[in-house]
Design a protein that fits this description.
The structure is a homodimer. Chain A has about 270 residues and is an alpha+beta fold. The first copy, chain A, has 5 helices and 10 strands. In chain A, strands 1, 2, 3, 4, 5, 6, 7, 8, 9 and 10 form a 10-stranded mixed sheet that branches.
């Protein structure tokens, strides 16, 4: 039995998130579409394991999945190309490789890099609308960075977790929260952490934007973190701006402690 | 009577091109959607003049249009915002300003900057698929640049013009044809010219890609140009990779000679 690891890119627009939902057509979820394509390739049932359960509308350039197959003849590259021919528009396999038996993309992950993309401009964008959050007023990036730095390190992120999160606790470690100018009118919020509670990156982004607009003091993010109270915080930024850029397995990050469950799309 | 000039961005995917087509719903063409939105704003009939008639599937970040209105009270910025609220997804006004009476966005243009975006990667992209042409084999950018340089200057571009082009002749001037690496796996073909015959940029892109793949010698583009024969050339690259980036009116470019009709989307 082989274990294969795939890197997946998808356009979250029009999709109902990563996770299979029995009441939806297979092609409306990434997992459903992928399992269907993999089952056609392998001619046997496939159940995927994934690094992250991204929500409806959230994008990924570096989602990682793994599964088992007894098809020994198909080389990885041919496998990836064949699956791409079977996938619906908006979902592609970007790489395929052999993995150790039973390898688990979430449990083995040392961390994840999410990027939240803002379009900061008096006017919206048409060509990139699906992957940004449009903010028409200028933002104070320095204040946002000051606020973001207060979240670095290991904390209880209870105040940055949405209802319905099934993780046992919200202790997580953030290695990077940085707000940097992107191309054209884009502003990128780069968030790198060992793991994330539900909607954590979108709640961070929502609060940082309020700081950038001057509606919230940078220091208030430290107060919010200490409060452990979601109701003290700002809005959850919309899914469209969020992208799972990369799942990190190598020694750029330290190994994760045991029993640190990871739930939800950040 | 005021003349207003608008800069328009649109996602060509799902649109049937710029020009109004009486047999199609208004929202399937950029002109149709814009005229409908402007008519609702002004409460009078509107007929647009445009810098370029982009084809179905072609994008624009800097299309320029002009029209007349007798509504004196609406300031430009409020006008643009109001129109954006009325436009369908995929079309936005990026700027609005007063223009001299009767100003014509095509006749006054000194040139246009088109970008053709290739996605050069063994695997496709999902998030940006709508705005690239995927080529799975590596390309020789040096050979492409060598070939592109043979097109610079004033020539009869008959061999780079598609059937159905209504221009009287194909004499045009190219100021820049440059192939440069873009972000991630993108390669950009930057084309700057005084005006363009129909499908000119897409035919240039198709030929340059054949050069990059080694299927055509760089020097053959000079031969093709001299032949004035479209049937000697390579394929027309697909619409998805093409974007009208900017229409140039200022003295970055010399004024155009008179009677130089400009037809089609490049």
């Amino acid at each position: 039995l082989r274990t294969l690891r795939l890197i997946i890119e998808y356009n979250g627009k029009g999709l109902s998130g990563f996770q299979l939902q029995s009441q939806l057509p297979a092609d409306k979820t990434v997992q459903g579409a992928l399992e269907k394509a993999l089952e056609r390739m392998t001619q046997h049932p496939v159940r995927l394991r994934a690094a992250s359960r991204t929500d409806a509308g959230v994008h990924a350039r570096g989602q990682v999945v793994a599964f088992e197959t007894d098809r020994d003849r198909i080389p990885c590259e041919g496998f990836a190309r064949g699956v791409n021919d079977l996938l619906p528009e908006g979902i592609v396999v970007r790489a395929a490789e052999e993995a150790p038996p039973g390898w688990h993309p979430r449990r083995q992950a040392r961390g994840k890099h999410y990027r939240y993309v803002l379009w900061v401009d008096p006017y919206p964008t048409a060509i990139d609308a699906h992957r940004v959050w449009w903010r028409s007023q200028p933002l104070d990036l320095e204040a946002m960075n000051q606020a973001g730095s207060l979240l670095l390190g290991t904390h209880d992120f209870e105040a940055f977790r949405s209802a319905g999160c099934s993780a046992h606790h919200a202790m997580r470690t953030l290695y990077r929260v940085e707000v940097v100018p992107g191309p054209r009118s884009e502003v990128h919020i780069e968030v790198l952490g060992n793991a994330f509670v539900r909607n954590m990156v979108r709640i961070i982004a929502g609060n940082l934007v309020e700081v950038g607009q001057g509606r919230r003091a940078p220091e208030s993010l430290g107060v919010l973190l200490a409060s452990r109270d979601r109701t003290q915080g700002g809005m959850t930024a919309p899914a469209s701006g969020l992208c799972l850029e990369e799942v990190i397995y190598d020694d750029r990050l330290p190994p994760r402690p045991k029993n640190n469950a990871d739930h939800g799309p950040g």
